[in-house]
Design brief:
Elements: H1 3-26, H2 35-45, E1 51-54, E2 61-66, E3 73-79, H3 106-122, E4 130-136, H4 144-150, E5 162-169, E6 177-179, E7 182-185, E8 187-196, E9 200-201, H5 211-229, E10 236-245, E11 251-252, E12 255-264, H6 267-288, E13 291-297, E14 303-305, H7 307-321, E15 326-328, H8 339-343, E16 348-354, H9 376-392
Parallel strand pairs: 3-4, 3-5, 5-16, 6-15
Antiparallel strand pairs: 1-2, 2-4, 6-16, 7-14, 8-12, 8-13, 9-11, 10-12
Helix pairs in contact: 1-3, 1-9, 3-9, 5-6, 7-9
């Protein structure tokens, strides 16, 4: 199938894809349980030559398309869950669920992958292997990808050889494709620090051990140690985002609590940041004669594109859309993604697809985020071309 024909087919299925996206957008769901979204996906896939599996622990769906020739297996992934935000877009199909919104484009990801499933099913004779289409809940902090991997997503026959995902970006020009080899998104960890002093009257601080100035000193020290102890070319971002202490104006509290996040783009820098938080906390606590306990909860690891697969993706996208549409990212984005768990186990890549509606476009995770729906045709076509080309090459990523 020539590129022009593929793009025409993507535009042909676009009205149904937009309708599905709007249906999902109006009915957003959180976490690992997205039953209405699952029903919408299953309904949209009905009648296609797909083997459908549903997750036991989540509402995830894996739709498998077996080609008419043997070959490798490529996983195409879309996430299905929303965010706990109150939508303020004014769209006619805005969220009907108070406090829940598709503000990260997962509704578009899901709808685009359904569109790709339809086109791939029409051209099953050109599928030289197997395509697994994953509709995965729980990306927004619930680790849905890891849950599905534990259920056998990657190992269950036919075993997945590589994986590909698209994430929309409302700040990029419509149809632009941005990617880079290596780290493309950061690891994201959460830390908490509990400081135990001794309470007392605010007029007599010398009879107490005040944890509040210790907390304040820690905030400044944690923000600054990164600039002196971490390589600027292997970046770390430490942000203290919460301080809790005290109950009233004239009482020195006995305890204080800090919380925040650590972002890093290598395992080396991640470990250095964790060690630094513990070391700085220990030293400042000792200097002020308080106890301080650090708890670090490790979140998603670094999302790392395989270099060969990223180069392959760049070639495919450049041939499909033109070289000028492909953007080489100069640095990773410090957000995090649970697609990282999949890329830890199989080669693959994630790319960003431009869907800017123009003007002063709100970014993802904004309750004002909107997107240019016509750009979803590019995402549909890219999913299809990536699958057909990867399988046609027998999984080999070099030049044909």
């Amino acid at each position: 199938m020539h590129d022009d024909a593929l793009l025409a087919e993507a535009r042909d299925v676009l009205p149904d894809v937009i309708a599905l996206r709007r249906r999902i957008h109006a009915n957003p769901e959180l976490g690992l349980e997205n039953p209405e979204t699952q029903r919408a996906v299953l309904g949209a896939l009905e009648g296609l030559p797909l083997e459908i599996e549903t997750s036991r622990a989540t509402t995830g769906v894996v739709a498998t398309l077996e080609g008419e020739r043997d070959g490798p297996t490529l996983l195409l992934r879309a996430d299905t869950d929303a965010l706990p935000l109150r939508e303020e877009t004014g769209l006619p199909f805005a969220s009907e669920r108070e406090g829940t919104m598709h503000a990260c484009g997962h509704d578009a990801h899901t709808a685009m992958l359904v569109g790709a499933a339809r086109i791939l099913s029409r051209h099953r004779d050109a599928v030289a292997g197997t395509v697994k289409l994953l509709f995965q809940p729980g990306e927004e902090g619930y680790g849905g990808a890891r849950v599905l991997i534990e259920e056998g997503l990657l190992e269950r026959a036919p075993r997945v050889d590589a994986a590909f995902a698209i994430h929309v970006d409302p700040t990029l020009s419509p149809g632009a494709v941005a990617l880079r080899p290596g780290p493309i998104l950061a690891a994201a960890d959460v830390f908490g620090i509990d400081i135990a002093g001794r309470g007392g009257h605010a007029s007599m601080p010398h009879h107490a051990v005040d944890p509040v100035p210790v907390a304040c000193e820690l905030v400044m020290a944690l923000q600054s140690f990164v600039t002196r102890r971490v390589d600027a070319f292997d970046p770390v971002v430490v942000s203290v985002t919460r301080i809790d202490a005290g109950t009233t104006h004239n009482v020195i509290p006995a305890t204080a609590h800090l919380a925040g996040t650590v972002r890093s783009v290598s395992e080396r820098a991640r470990r250095a940041a964790h060690d630094g938080i513990r070391r700085v906390t220990r030293g400042i606590a000792a200097a002020h004669d308080v106890k301080a306990d650090v708890n670090i909860l490790e979140g998603y690891p670094v999302t790392c594109n395989d270099a060969a697969f990223a180069a392959f993706t760049r070639d495919v996208a450049g041939a499909l859309f033109g070289e000028r549409a492909v953007v080489e990212m100069p640095a990773p984005i410090m957000g995090a993604e649970d697609f990282s768990y999949i890329l830890d186990r199989v080669p693959g890549a994630m790319v960003f697809l431009g869907v800017s509606p123009g003007g002063d476009a709100a970014p993802i995770h904004s309750n004002r985020m909107v997107l240019e729906e016509s750009a979803m045709a590019s995402g549909i076509a890219l999913h299809v071309r990536m699958a057909l080309e990867f399988l046609a090459r027998g999984g080999a990523l070099g030049a044909r």
